[in-house]
Amino acid sequence: MSETPITYAEAGVDVEAGDKAVELMKESVRRAQRPEVMGGLGGFAGLFDASVLARLAHPVLATSTDGVGTKVAVAQAMDRHDTIGFDLVGMVVDDIICCGAEPLYMTDYIATGKVVPERIAAIVSGIAAACEQAGVALIGGETAEHPGLLEPHEYDVAGAATGVVERADLLTPERVQVGDVVLGLASSGLHSNGYSLVRKVFESRGWAYDRDVPELGRTLGEELLEPTRVYSADLLQLIRTEGIDMHALSHVTGGGLAANLARVLPTGVLARVDRASWTPAPIFGLVQELGQVPVADLERTLNMGVGFCAVLPAEQADLAIEVCTDAGIDTWVLGEVSDRESGDPAYGEIVSGSKGVDAGACQMVGQHPAH
């Protein structure tokens, strides 16, 4: 039996470092608030005044949870941690907006091998900044030190958010009609999906993150850490714009454009997306070329430059494009909705049944313009 007392610190957990991290993040969290938030940082639970729901005739709560995936490995390798929060918030709150709900509040969870207060504070500063941009309150979180499970420099992040929508305004597949148009909203880059493939491609070719890449106009690492665009506040404004009758919204994440668009459509209809309507950013071509990645696999993995799809009546497309463009989001007509029978496998794969959802279908046709 050991005669030397074993403390929690000797086991690898530094409680004082955790307390210092909380102190460093307080100012960032303070900016990511809403009037409905009750209490302050450090309580056992985040409090949100639910009387805000009283303004709705039939409030429906929406919730979502997600992480960032292996993009955190890039942040760790580059020792830059202030952008990964945008990826987390985007993955969570932008799923909620897909049903028409306004995201209200969010909580986060960070697991790390060793609490380095400045690193934790940098991560949370990004989360708070993204929440502030999205109009979402960051009302709580947890940092856990896992020595022996994670290396000292390693960490992972996850989050969950809750929103609310009037039941009559809920976006469901039944709203979509044959003849609707599909708008594409540009992504800021790779966002936060497919990084296992992306990292594998560049590692296999010996490309370091500090490599200057002329096609990208910056280093590879800077490109890979480009924060996910957070759409929710701008899409909420679009939904509430007079003259807009939004039928469906699709967040293009894991599974790619076709699979995620298909899951918000009703059975019996097909969205035909024309690749010729946009040119993906150079990073997507680099991944394909260096890795000799088949096009079908690439499109099932990456967003290919489209971060969101909006489905609405054709006569409202110009107004919707104007609203999104004014918000700084490049937006264009991506395709149209027709009946399922119009799909011809000779022109490309017809994607349906994604995520176990019995829904509509999507077909990608044509070719992207050359750079």
From TrEMBL:
Group of enzyme by EC: ligase
Pathway given in the UniProt record: Purine metabolism; IMP biosynthesis via de novo pathway; 5-amino-1-(5-phospho-D-ribosyl)imidazole from N(2)-formyl-N(1)-(5-phospho-D-ribosyl)glycinamide: step 2/2
Primary localization class, coarse: cytoplasm
Location in or out of the cell: Cytoplasm
GO MF terms held by the record: ATP binding; phosphoribosylamine-glycine ligase activity; phosphoribosylformylglycinamidine cyclo-ligase activity
Ranges in a coiled coil: none
A GO cellular-component term linked to this record: cytosol
Domain PurM-like C-terminal: 177-343
Gene Ontology BP annotations: 'de novo' IMP biosynthetic process; adenine biosynthetic process
Domain of life according to the entry: Bacteria
Catalytic reactions of this protein: 2-formamido-N(1)-(5-O-phospho-beta-D-ribosyl)acetamidine + ATP = 5-amino-1-(5-phospho-beta-D-ribosyl)imidazole + ADP + phosphate + H(+)
EC code: 6.3.3.1
HAMAP family, per the entry: AIRS
Protein name: Phosphoribosylformylglycinamidine cyclo-ligase
